[in-house]
C-alpha cells in the first residue's frame, strides 16, 4: 500500500525554476518538498546566460557571492558574417544597475541552488516522479513513484509544476502549451579552444549563401575555465536526425523529435 505524507507545497521538478521556488519558500519559512524523477543532476551547460536582474534576486536570497565566484562576466558579443567581423556589441549597463551579465552553466546554477536549499534542511527527493494528482477545495493529493517501484501519496495545500517543457502537471490540468520548436536542428558542445579572441565575449558567426539566406551558424558562449565555450551550430543536412527519420520512412524508427535551440 502507498505511503501517505503531507506538506504545504509540493514542488515537482528540480531544474532552476523548481529549485529557486523551493529555496524561496524555505527562506520564507514555508514547509515544502521538492521531487525530481532523475537520479542525479544532468551535467550539461544548457542555459548559460545569467541576467543582471537574476543576480539582484540571488543577492536578495543571499546567494550572489557563490554565483559570481562560479560564473564569468559576459562582456559582449562579436559578430561575423562570411568570415568578416561585422561589429562588436558591448554589454554596458547604466551605473545604477548593480550587476552585469554573467555566464554560468545551468548545472552549476542548479548545484548552487541545491546547496543553498540544503542549508534550510531541504534536499531534492530524487528518482521520484509525479504520476498523477487530484485536487479538491482544501488541497491536492499527488501520486508519486520511485524507481525502486515504491508508491506514495503526498497531500499538500499546493502542487507546483516546475517539471519542464513536457510538464505532467500542465497536462494533468489540461492546460495548453503555445508555441513549438524551431525547424532548425542544432548540435551543442562544451569545448576548450585556443584562440586570441578577447575573453568574456560571445561569438556569433554566420554564413549567407548567394540567395542571402543564412545557411550556417555558429554561436559560442563563454563558460568558466580557460578557453571554455558552449558552442552551438546548425546541424548539416547529412547529420540531420529529422532527415534521417524521414528517409527511413514511417516504420524506420527514430524519435521524430527536432531539438531546436530555445
Ligand atoms: C541542450 C539544451 C540547451 C539549452 N540551451 C539554452 C540556452 O542557451 N539558453 C536558455 O535560455 N535556455 C537553454 N535551454 C533551455 C533551458 O535548459 C530550460 O529553459 C530550463 O532548463 C528550464 O528550467 P525549468 O526549471 O523550468 O525546467 P527543467 O530544467 O526542464 O527542469 C524540469 C525538471 O523536472 C523534472 N521532471 C519532469 N517531469 C517530472 C515528473 N513527472 N516528476 C518529477 N520530476 C519531473 C525533470 O527531470 C527536470 O529535472 C537549453 C536546453 C537544452 C536541453
The CATH class assignment of the largest domain is Alpha Beta
Present as ligands are: flavin-adenine dinucleotide
Beta percentage is: 35-45%
CA gyration radius, whole angstroms: 22 Å
The low-confidence parts are: 252-262
* First-to-last CA distance: 42 Å
**Number of domain modules:** 2
CATH topology of the largest domain: FAD/NAD(P)-binding domain
CATH architecture descriptor of the largest domain = 3-Layer(bba) Sandwich
Counted by DSSP, the helix tally is 6
Largest sheet: 6 strands, mixed
Instruction: Sum up the overall morphology in one term.
Output: globular
Question: How many beta strands in the DSSP annotation?
Answer: 15
Spatial strand order of the main sheet? 8-2-1-11-10-9
Could you state the CATH homologous superfamily of the largest domain?
Answer: FAD/NAD(P)-binding domain
Domain FAD-binding: 7-193
Keywords: FAD, Flavoprotein, Monooxygenase, Oxidoreductase
Pfam family, one: FAD_binding_3
Protein name: Pentachlorophenol monooxygenase
Amino acid at each position: 500500500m502507498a505511503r501517505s505524507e503531507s506538506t504545504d507545497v509540493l514542488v515537482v521538478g528540480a531544474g532552476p525554476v523548481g529549485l529557486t521556488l523551493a529555496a524561496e519558500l524555505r527562506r520564507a519559512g514555508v514547509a515544502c518538498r521538492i521531487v525530481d524523477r532523475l537520479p542525479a543532476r544532468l551535467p550539461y551547460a544548457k542555459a548559460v546566460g545569467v541576467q543582471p536582474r537574476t543576480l539582484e534576486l540571488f543577492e536578495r536570497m543571499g546567494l550572489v557571492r557563490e554565483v559570481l565566484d562560479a560564473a564569468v562576466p559576459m562582456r559582449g558579443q562579436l559578430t561575423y558574417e562570411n568570415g568578416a567581423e561585422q561589429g562588436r556589441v558591448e554589454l554596458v549597463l547604466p551605473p545604477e544597475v548593480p550587476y552585469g551579465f554573467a555566464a554560468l552553466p545551468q548545472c552549476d546554477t542548479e548545484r548552487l541552488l541545491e546547496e543553498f536549499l540544503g542549508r534550510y534542511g531541504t534536499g531534492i527527493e530524487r528518482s521520484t516522479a509525479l504520476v498523477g494528482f487530484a485536487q479538491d477545495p482544501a488541497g491536492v493529493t499527488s501520486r508519486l513513484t520511485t524507481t525502486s517501484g515504491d508508491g506514495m501519496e503526498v497531500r499538500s495545500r499546493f502542487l507546483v509544476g516546475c517539471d519542464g517543457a513536457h510538464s505532467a502537471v500542465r497536462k494533468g490540468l489540461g492546460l495548453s502549451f503555445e508555441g513549438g520548436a524551431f525547424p532548425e536542428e542544432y548540435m551543442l558542445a562544451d569545448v576548450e579552444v585556443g584562440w586570441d579572441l578577447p575573453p568574456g565575449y560571445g561569438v556569433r558567426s554566420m554564413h549567407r549563401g548567394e540567395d542571402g539566406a543564412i545557411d550556417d551558424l555558429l554561436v559560442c558562449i563563454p563558460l568558466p575555465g580557460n578557453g571554455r565555450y558552449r558552442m552551438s551550430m546548425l546541424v548539416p543536412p547529412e547529420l540531420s536526425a529529422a532527415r534521417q527519420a524521414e528517409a527511413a520512412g514511417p516504420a524506420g524508427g527514430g524519435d521524430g523529435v527536432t531539438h531546436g535551440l530555445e
